[in-house]
Amino acid sequence: MSLIKLEGVSKLYGFGDATTVALDEANLVIEKGEFIAVMGPSGSGKSTLMHIIGLLDRPSNGRYILEGRSVSRLRSNQAAKLRRDSIGFIFQSFNLLNRFTVLENVAMPLAYKGMSITKRSKQASAILERVGIQSREYFYPYQLSGGQAQCAAIARALVNNPKIIIADEPTGNLDSAGSRLVMELLSEIHRSGNTTIIFVTHNPELTRYATRVVYMHDGSIIHDERKPFGSVAQRARQVLYTLPVKTVEDDLAGVSALMKAIPYKPAKKQSKKKLKNQRKPAKSRSSR
Predict the structure, then answer these.
(1) Which of 35, 124, 244, 271: disulfide with 107, CB 3.0–4.6 Å?
(2) What band does 253 get if pLDDT is binned at 50, 70 and 90?
(3) What pLDDT band is residue 244 in, cutting at 50, 70 and 90?
């Protein structure tokens, strides 16, 4: 049985002539334990797809089946409970609360379960140790680097031991070192358990961490590629390695190619009479 199954799922916003199709009859099957990257240009429907899979939104049409159960039309309180128990979220902007310590931020999802302060603090501390920032548990979010803040956000997503982690541009606000730290951490989480991870990215290099890449355009899933871990996805590679880099050699090669493409045509010989007329200077008005 598949973990996630979308059947003809669409999402429309607005009415009448102002209707916008954010997701257009998407069909997608995700098995337990997959590590999936979702790619596509801005406005292609990536975030809408994540919101529907994460039960933050419901489809306008189609069916969403989670672990064999149809969840397309759950009531708000039912969706919230399922989301709390089964899904962890990692956001581009971290979404940590600055007036709470890192430990309190990570422990917050456990408070909604009614867990005691002592127990949830202990569990949150253990998760922070797992992601490598236990020494920062009494810091406030504004005292962390970008990479550390995202590690704290990952810890918060993991504290409920979710079956699914949804990461919407988790490295979007990080430098290359922070991005590597976060992706290595997600990769370690994937290898050490049966957690299914779905992350959105614009960076083709980050597809190295995925086992499957889904490509979107204009609200539709246009390509679905399985790949070995550690290699850049083939379709993403075309984007990464075909970006134009202009050098003097490139310009010369372009001129050479242009010369070969356009056949040489010698200039037509002009008559002696025309040449004689061209050489004669024009008489000025004052000389008349």
Answers:
(1) 124
(2) very low
(3) very low
69 phi and psi, to 5 degrees? Answer: -115, 130
Given this model, what pLDDT does residue 112 score? 84
Radius of gyration of the chain (CA): 29
Residue 260: pLDDT band (50, 70, 90) is very low
Unique residue bearing structure tokens 């979007």: 172
Yes or no: say if 90 and 157 are a contact pair by the CB < 8 Å rule.
yes
Q: How far apart are CA 116 and CA 97, in angstroms?
A: 20
Burial class (CB in 10 A: 0-12, 13-18, 19+), 66: buried
- For 32-61+74-241, which CATH class? alpha beta
Between strands 212-217 and 35-39, the pairing is parallel
Distances in Å between the alpha carbon of 79 and those of 44, 58, 67?
25, 10, 14
Overall pTM surpassing 0.85 (yes/no): no
What lies within 8 Å, CB to CB, of 245 at 6+ separation is: none
164 φ, ψ (degrees, to nearest 5): -130, 135
Q: How many CA atoms lie within 13 A of 7 on its CB side?
A: 11
pLDDT, the chain, mean: 84
Spatial contact of 212 and 4, defined as CB atoms under 8 Å apart: no
How far apart are the C-alpha atoms of 3 and 120, rounded to whole Å? 28
